[in-house]
Amino acid sequence: MKTIDVIVDGGKASAGPPLAPALAPMGVNIGQVVSKINEATKDFAGMKVPVKIHVDPKTKQYTIEVGSPQTAEIIKKEAGIEKGAGNKDAAAGNVSLARLVVVSKAKRNSLGKDLKETLKEVLGTCVSMGVTIDGKNAKAMIKEVNEGKHDSLLKG
């Protein structure tokens, strides 16, 4: 079994690089693989998505494993921005705390020990990107989360 790691645009992978050069020597149907990747990543349109393709070169059988986009990619989509602010003190965009709780639940498998810790990591990414939360500075929002002011959002 061989594994190919690539990062693709959600729902828009193509039969060109980086997929074709990696898959061609293995003899798999590249168009079929691309189609399956696009179907599996369509919900991440506009984001960079990590994908692993596991190929058995002898049988030409393959499986596709779609990872979670980077937290910054998800925040950019939620805030409707193309990139974060060059200066973390400048506001690049705004997102609601409720949406960041949803993001935190999705990222839960890879980050903090509980949802609150994961939310604080996501908020930390907002700090470095210059994204505000419900119009507030991300550092101020982290302080509020630490104080328990938003615990009701973290239940359920």
From TrEMBL:
Can you provide one Gene Ontology molecular function annotated for this UniProt record? structural constituent of ribosome
Spell out the InterPro entries in the cross-references: Ribosomal_uL11 (IPR000911), Ribosomal_uL11_C (IPR020783), Ribosomal_uL11_C_sf (IPR036769), Ribosomal_uL11_CS (IPR020785), Ribosomal_uL11_N (IPR020784), Ribosomal_uL11_N_sf (IPR036796)
Limits of the Large ribosomal subunit protein uL11 C-terminal domain: 68-133
Report the superkingdom from the record.
Archaea
HAMAP family xrefs: Ribosomal_uL11
Subunit structure, per the record? Part of the ribosomal stalk of the 50S ribosomal subunit. Interacts with L10 and the large rRNA to form the base of the stalk. L10 forms an elongated spine to which L12 dimers bind in a sequential fashion forming a multimeric L10(L12)X complex.
Query: Could you tell me what this protein is called?
Result: Large ribosomal subunit protein uL11
Native source organism of the sequence: Candidatus Bilamarchaeum dharawalense
Which gene holds the coding sequence for this protein? rpl11
